[in-house]
Amino acid sequence: MSEQLLEQLRDAIIGLDETGAKEIARRGLAEGVDPLGMIQHGIKAAMDDIGRRFSAEELFLPELMLSANAADAAVGVIEPALIKAGTTSKTAGKVLLATVEGDLHDIGKNILALLLKSSGFEVLDLGVDQKNDAILEAAGSNEVGMIGLSALLTTTMHRMKEFVELLQERGVRDRFKVVVGGAPITREFSDSIGADGYGADAVMGVELATKFLGA
Amino acid sequence: MDPYNLKGGQLKILDGSEVEEIFQRGLDVLEDVGCYFEHDEALDMFEKHGAAVDRSDGIVRIPRKMATDAIDLCPPSVLLAARDPDKDILAEGDRVYFGPGTLPVKVRDLETGEIRNGTLKDVEQFARLIDALEFIHFWKGMLTPFDVNQKIVDLHMANAAFNNTVKQISQSPFSTAGAIDLWRMGVAVAGGAEAFRQRPMIIINMLAVSPLQWTNENIGAIMALSERRCPIIVGSEPQGGTTGPAPLAGQLVLNVAETVAGITLAQLVGPGTPILWGNVGSISDMRTGQFGSGAVELGLINAAMNQIAKFCKIPTYSTAGMSDSKVSDAQSGVEKSLQVLTVALAGGNYIHDAAGMIETCLLVTHEQFVIDNEMLGMVARVLDGIRVTPETLSIEAIRQVGPRKNFMGLRHTLDNIRPEHYLPRLFDRSTREAWEAKGAKDIQETAREKARHILATHEVEPLPAEVREELDAIIKEAEASY
Ligand code: B12
């Protein structure tokens, strides 16, 4: 396996170079570099590095986003070869995110989605103002492992409590890990409603996903 | 210095051609990109008046002429009446007024120091505190009470405000129905709908969701309120880098487009509705996405917005005086003062978020209110400027004293202290020895003592019994119907 090519691939992603990343991935395939190796030691390694540096507040949000785009593009090039070889690039796990009913705040949730994606999780983002029923429905039909709810208003945070109750009523409480966040949410609140975890920021959200879904 | 006659306008961040450029590019955005309106009746309204409405995606493209006609319908001077007419606010020109802002969720308990959820009693106390603090001109629903029905916190807060201060009131509603009930409360205090038109007792605020989106409840509220000619704050809160462009000029362009979109709807529904042009925008800290509430850019953006709105002859709802610090410390002092000074000098008419709040709009404390009142007094002194008259040039006094003596014994000195010197109400200028003898208290403790004293002694003229009953009845009705 070409160490040099893997390094170039990592550099392209860290350098936010989508075209370059695709080009290098193509070259790798042509030169017979192991596709799974490219994903793991090239793309994933680069994204781990990005994630670490973002957590240390050394990077800006657009760098997170643009590097993820470059990574996605390279994966897109490599994927067909993987499928042909009978393997897939397994994601770390599936997370559903939603802002609760009546609430339109989504900046924090969007950042969490971005960081989860760049940490290798598959993210199903339902958006804002989502009714509990719809959230549960989507979680069930998409077989997500963790549900992350965001609320920024004191007038909407009770929806989180109602969501945990809904899971209990339907007898599916054990099927999903439920984590909550947003400016007015506290650990005490999270404990009091019986959520599985609370994240004060996106980095903590990723830690929870890693803990529950085992990245 | 008369706290009800403060004037800014000394500071210009943009030159005239830049103001015009930003404004025109904002109108371009409305024409080319358009704005999303999540409300069928609003789409009908726009269509009826000739805007390009795309029913498939809810985007309205507003022709220039329609936008400028709406701007011209906005009254250049907006009276916001207070229960005590001496405390009325006249939002126009470069007049400056300060008030607190909006809806923090936690309070630091004045006695125990515990950070806890707010209660209705806290809200009432803050209203009384505001009533007593001379440089805070209005009430803006601060601190969300947890011990009332959460669907109508807005109504409970307004009720607490009307009962506990004679100063001017503004409140953010949580729904269209809430907005209408807030107006009804204002009407009750004014003494009827006609009296309210003459002396509107409440202003209600509406923000777009950046970028370029007006949501259902807020559109409903704008339409209902402008039908009633109730004063409305129309504005937006783009955050540079996340929900708005990173450059400040681009953010101003977006604020023009979003605000003018809202204003156009308001004026189509209710021509002549009094409007304040709002901007609550700041930057996101792009390392985390966190809202930069104490960012120095917030002051710059708001100062520039004031120039643009004044160019349109629309009074402003400005933002300044926020902090991301968790405590009342040097960080909060610097962040707040810089923002307030910048925006006040730009002539912000109705400057909210100017008192009481820290921790990125999440925490309110009594001591911060008292400290900010002092800061606002100092800013007011800057606005008052330097009067240059034969009397203040002091030639006679200088001649009289001559070289090598002093000015302490002059009548001229005595007569000019109050008009010329700001006397701190709180800040300490004593020597270390004297300060230690008084207990070596820091500003937070001194401010807490003052707050306690105000709460123990300050009384507010109660509302007439029948008005109180009317307000209670509106709340009771809402309690049953929401
Ligand atoms: C920006 C903003 C808005 C924007 C939202 C734009 C958008 N697209 O999201 C606009 C202008 C639309 C808006 C509207 C309103 N807002 Co607002 N808004 C804010 C503000 C200033 C910043 C929020 C933000 O984006 N922060 C930056 C992000 C990165 O932080 P975050 O959201 O907290 O997310 C981080 C963590 O919390 C965590 N996290 C978040 N979610 C989750 C989920 C999980 C699972 C996990 C693990 C972690 C996690 O990770 C994130 C990243 O680190 C806050 C103040 C504040 N300090 O929160 C007020 C605030 C939340 N808003 C408030 C209010 C009152 C309103 C309005 C009612 C005002 C009005 N009358 O128009 C409306 C309500 C609209 C609605 N129905 O939702 C109040 C709430 C008060 C209360 N009682 O609850 C606040 C506290 C401000 C204030 N004091 O007035 N608002």
Outline:
Chain A is of the alpha/beta class and 215 residues long. Chain A contains nine helices and five strands; from the N terminus they run ααααβαβαβαβαβα.
Question: What would you note in describing this structure?
Answer:
- The complex is a heterodimer of chains A (about 220) and B (about 475).
- Chain A has 2 domains: about 5-85, Orthogonal Bundle (Methyltransferase, Methionine Synthase (B12-binding Domains), Chain A, domain 1), CATH 1.10.1240.10; about 95-215, Rossmann fold (3-Layer(aba) Sandwich).
- In chain A, about 55% of the residues lie in helices and about 10% in strands.
- Chain A has helices at about 5-15, 20-30, 35-55, 60-85, 105-120, 130-140, 160-170, 185-190, 200-215; strands spanning about 95-100, 120-125, 145-150, 175-180, 195-200.
- In chain A, strands 2-1-3-4-5 form a 5-stranded parallel β-sheet, with helices on both faces.
- In chain A, strand 1 (about 95-100), helix 5 (about 105-120) and strand 2 (about 120-125) form a beta-alpha-beta unit.
- Chain B has about 475 residues and is α/β, with parallel strands linked by helices.
- Chain B folds into 2 domains: about 5-15 and about 70-385, TIM Barrel (Alpha-Beta Barrel); about 390-420, no CATH class.
- Chain B contains 18 helices and 21 strands.
- Chain B is globular, with a radius of gyration of 23 Å.
- The mean pLDDT of chain B is about 95.
- The interface of A and B includes residues 104, 107 and 110 of A.
- Cobalamin (B12) sits at the interface of chains A and B.
